[in-house]
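**User:**
Make up any protein.

**Assistant:**
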Amino acid sequence: MDGEPLFDVLDLMKKLERDLAVLYIMAANSIHDAAVSSVMRKIGVESATHNYIVTLIEPLIRECPPKKVMDNETLMTIEKSIKEAINQVDSLIDYVRTKQKLGDSDLADAILEKLDELEAYEENAVKIYSFLLRSYLPITSTRADAKYRAVSKLIVKLLKGIADDEREHKELLESVNEVLGRTRG
């Protein structure tokens, strides 16, 4: 972490996306239902892509920081939320690894029991990316320097793409619950 709140959040998002990619791919490899496994693999690959895109966005944000990002208190709240999600995802990864080593035949069921938690991670990711996105939207329509405005538009497009993916991930996980015939209480 480099001590700048916005970049601390970006570093944490990279880690969270990387960890989610690992978790979803592990889940895909453990689940024998083709439809469910395909969904998990798709989300895993896209999470890895999000990690890469956030890595690419970081120098753009350094070159073109938002004028009024957000207050540090909000950033600290977001940072805390991401750290909690990372801890939970890392615990799930450890749990899956342990079950895999034991050759647990109930591993797929155990992973699928965690679908609600995975949906919550995706929903929170949408909020975080949307929050970052909103800090750039005003710049894209101002009379700022043309390059600054163009870079801001690029950042907005990249963040919007990730936020849209996260919304789709949540919907896909909801569909997995339907495929499995699970209803919510």
The mean pLDDT is 83. Residues 5-177 form a domain with the Ferritin fold (CATH 1.20.1260). The chain has six helices and no strands. The CA atoms of residues 50 and 108 lie 25 Å apart.
